[in-house]
Amino acid sequence: MSSGPRSTPRTRRILEAAIAIIAERGLRGLTHRAVDAQAGLPEGSTSGYYRTRLALLTGTAEFLRDQLLGGVEHAVGQIGSAPSDGLVIDAVVELLDGWLAEPAIIVVVAELKLEGLRTPEIDEAFAAWREELIDFVAQTTARIGSDDPRLKATAVIAALEGVLLSAVAVPPESRRDYLNPVVSSILGAMLAHAGESERARS
Question: If we measure between CA atoms, which residue out of 5, 1, 37 comes closest to residue 18?
Fold first, then answer.
């Protein structure tokens, strides 16, 4: 659970400014003074909400986590209780495409996750999102008959994280065309294997 300040329009402005700075300059560029300037706030404003750099990094990670969880919950609703292969693939493409609408978020998440290897507080901020994402994929693979659905889910998510990062480098107008065949290839192989496993048990 977050121990940071209550969400307000000003804290959102601060955290959006932090995201813009990290995306443009990396973590080294993130300072309280830089966030104040980016957000157009009086000097000292950011430190009034996030007293330390770690608090600012953790607050940024939690802010991103909440945005990412919203996308996962929407994808779960799209798939429903009786997923077809096509529905699963379409929902995942929509999920990734939605995240890629703001590529800075993908870049900043990658930066923070690397920092999380050294800083447990930052890693913990993403734990809920990752578990929710694993549950989402695992439930779907279980419905289509996959054995060991959580293992399959973990493997698929690792692959899709790589797809997201590689898609950031693709021109915006071509990202959907890039995602469709790549996601179809990854998930298609998993879905086909799950179908074979289910037939073998029948």
Answer: 37
